[in-house]
Write a structure and sequence with these properties.
Elements (H helix, E strand, L loop, with lengths): L2 H27 L4 H20 L3 H18 L7 H22 L2 E5 L2 H11 L19 E4 L7 H4 E7 L5 E7 L2 H4 L11 H8 L44 H7 L13 H26 L6 H24 L1 E3 L1 H4 L2 H12 L3 E6 L4 E3 H6 L1 H15 L3 H6 L6 E10 L2 E8 L6 H10 L5 H6 L2 H5 L23 H10 L3 E7 L3 E9 L5 E8 L2 E6 L3 E6 L5 E4 L2 E7 L2 E7 H5 L12 E5 L2 E5 L1 E8 L13 E6 L5 E5 L1 H9 L8
Parallel strand pairs: 6-8, 13-22, 17-19
Antiparallel strand pairs: 1-2, 3-4, 5-7, 8-9, 9-11, 10-11, 12-13, 12-20, 14-18, 15-16, 16-17, 18-19, 21-22
């Protein structure tokens, strides 16, 4: 197996499978969509060709089976049905498993024989024996063999296929499997295109055996005495291929166009981003050093300003390279909604908005699992059955909306439904029953904090576990992922009307703008994305409500008061004897001694404070000191569960 070809094939194959899945779902709703049929056919055709280069004959066979089925659809011999879409999707799952085997360095050898026979029966127009539409796509087993380098000759690479032509007459087709490996050629220009090549081969006639008659687990068609091709009697029907001189070919050929795209390993891009991060830190230190010089060093100050602009340009350019559209994050969701809604017997319409919004690749990769959890949770817990919706005066079909919204230097991703909403009292009681919180802690929770109990590990509103929920995992993964990505969660619900869960993330994770804070003698940093505003502290605005210390920001907003001195230094702040300032965040008003200023920073992970989850990491300030970066969400949660108010 050529590892260089494999590395090029894997990302392309993943994209093709996602595209194939999307086109199959499109055909389920619009069976006569000719563009979707053609696109799905091309996806399997391209996958077959790439697998042939890698000598992955099992994948070649599976792609060919599906390609043959879709060829019948293209030729109007068959029509797309829901059962056919089910089989195509399960076939895609088989190929996905084979792709996983290749990624692990193994050759995929076989897939489920029963599914292969179903594909062949459907392609032949026979009724499926024992076939029924599955409620959910089961796991598909694919075995694999260690990578080896088999010797390949022309007889292994080429075989004869017999099938009907478009005009109904019989035809012989010469098929290729790994032909480029069998017959290596130089880097010369192609004389004819693939379409022209197939047209010339279409002129062959005679008896043969269809690949559709092979077992699904066969690696290549059996060659027997009966189907061995003797000297063909149709050579008089083969038309000679017109040739032209090399000079004429060069004259008629369009000028070569250099490629404008380049596929780069993500690890290399990460390495470049790390280098840019170090450059940002050096720029900060230089700016701090120049700021302390006298006015006589104007040249040095000018150089520092020019360097600042250049570093900013480099930083922005590299960050743009890491940006990817949210379509990559959303493309799996239609399949999830389809399978889960079928399993639950619910009718759901999915709307996806903002696929073109771009976000950091690290965020896209990390959110694949959490997004699936959010959608499954909405379908299982939020959306009612058609009968329940009809009884409540709602449309039988529920609406599920997934959206990505660009908000300045942030991206907001929302999953919302028009289901039954979340009952705060029910959630609180379940949390007490399951030991997630105590009754005393429940009394001090605000309405929003009570609702956010659904993100606690081990919490579930169901008493019995199912394939979809009940184990208390899933939503806590969403919260933990948001925290690691320096994001924030926003849960809004109205009983009987629906629920919306949103996540906000910075556009990029490579460089983090922070605000430096002084807490007595210690310096900390807080992400700017977590800060709403700064305010002067006034003692008469502090109140105690339901056992919690709160701060009245204005006539319409009362927020929890978070005493960082009590949490981080085990010593409450005293407003009567200490100078304090307030930093308003999404989790409350943080009390600090002084706000120092903001700066771009590069986050470094820390392991020695793993038991204290209110730190996101550490950075190096412009003055060269190590500064801990605070996690606003974790600090707010710690304050909400404190036994008593601490500000004096």
């Amino acid at each position: 197996m050529d590892m260089e070809i494999l590395q090029d094939f894997l990302p392309e194959a993943t994209e093709l499978l996602q595209k194939a899945q999307g086109e199959a779902l499109t055909l389920e709703n619009n069976p006569d969509d000719a563009n979707a049929i053609a696109s799905l056919f091309r996806a399997f055709h391209t996958l077959k060709g790439g697998a042939g280069f890698l000598e992955a004959t099992a994948m070649v066979d599976w792609c060919h089976h599906l390609e043959d089925l879709l060829d019948k659809v293209r030729n109007k011999s068959l029509r797309i049905t829901p059962e056919m879409v089910d089989i195509i999707l399960k076939g895609i799952d088989v190929i996905q498993g084979m792709l996983g085997a290749l990624q692990a360095g193994d050759y995929p050898t076989i897939g489920p024989e029963s599914l292969g026979k179903m594909i062949q029966e459907m392609a032949s127009g026979q009724p499926l024996v024992g076939a029924s539409a599955p409620s959910e796509t089961p796991d598909v087993a694919v075995t694999s063999a260690p990578v080896r380098h088999p010797s390949l000759n022309v007889s292994d690479a080429l075989y004869i296929e017999h099938r009907s032509r478009e005009d109904g007459s019989d035809g012989i087709y010469l098929q290729q499997q790994g032909v480029d490996s069998a017959c290596p050629v130089g880097n010369g220009e192609d004389i004819i295109t693939e379409d022209e090549f197939e047209q010339y081969l279409d002129q062959l006639y005679g008896p043969g055996q269809k690949p559709g008659d092979w077992p699904a687990t066969s690696l290549k068609p059996p060659i027997t005495e009966e189907n061995t091709v003797a000297p063909l009697t149709v050579q008089d029907q083969i038309k000679p291929v017109p040739t032209m001189s090399k000079a004429a070919a060069q004259q008629d050929s369009p000028p070569e166009v250099a490629e404008t795209t380049l596929r780069v390993d993500a690890l290399r891009l990460d390495a470049v981003m790390n280098q840019v991060g170090e450059l940002v830190l050096l720029r900060n230190r230089l700016a701090s050093a120049v700021g302390g010089l006298s006015e006589e060093n104007e040249d040095m100050a000018r150089i520092a300003r020019e360097m600042d602009l250049t570093v900013n340009d480099i930083q922005n350019t590299v960050m743009r390279l890491r940006m990817q559209p949210c379509k990559r994050l959303f493309q799996q969701l239609p399949r999830v909604v389809r399978d889960v809604s079928r399993q639950l017997g619910k009718e759901v319409k999915l709307e996806i908005v903002g696929e073109d919004v771009e976000i950091d690749k690290a965020v896209v990769d990390a959110l694949a699992g959490p997004m699936t959890h959010l959608v499954r949770n909405s379908l299982d817990h939020g959306v009612e059955s058609p009968e329940e919706r009809a009884a409540a005066g709602k449309a039988r079909t529920a609406n599920l909306r997934v959206a990505a919204i660009h908000l300045g230097d942030k991206v907001r991703i929302e999953v919302s439904d028009d289901g039954k909403g979340i009952d705060r009292q029910f959630v609180t009681q379940k949390a007490i029953d399951k030991g997630v919180i105590t009754a005393e802690q429940a009394v001090r929770l605000s309405e929003q904090e009570a609702l956010e109990l659904i993100f606690r590990p081990g919490f579930s509103t169901k008493d019995q576990a199912t394939d979809l929920s009940g184990r208390g995992v899933g939503m806590d993964v969403v919260k933990e992922t948001a925290r690691k990505l320096r994001g924030r969660l926003d849960l809004q619900t109205r009983l009987g009307q629906g629920t919306s869960i949103a996540m906000e993330f910075p556009l990029t994770l490579a460089v983090l703008p922070v605000l430096y804070l002084r807490l007595r003698r210690d310096i900390y940093a807080l992400p700017v994305s977590a800060i709403d505003s700064l305010t002067d502290m006034e003692a008469h605005r502090i109140h105690r409500l339901a056992g919690r210390v709160t701060y009245r920001v204005d006539d319409t907003q009362i927020v929890p008061l978070v005493d960082l001195g009590a949490i981080l230094q085990d010593k409450p702040m005293r407003m009567d004897s200490e100078s304090v300032e307030g930093v308003l965040t999404e989790r409350g008003l943080f009390i600090v001694s002084e706000v120092l200023g903001n700066e771009d920073s590069v986050v470094k992970p820390i392991d020695f404070l793993a038991d204290q989850n209110w730190y996101q990491g550490a950075t190096i300030s412009g003055k060269g000191g190590v500064v801990l970066i605070l996690d606003a969400g974790a600090l707010g949660a710690a304050a909400s569960l404190a036994a008593e108010g601490t500000v004096e």
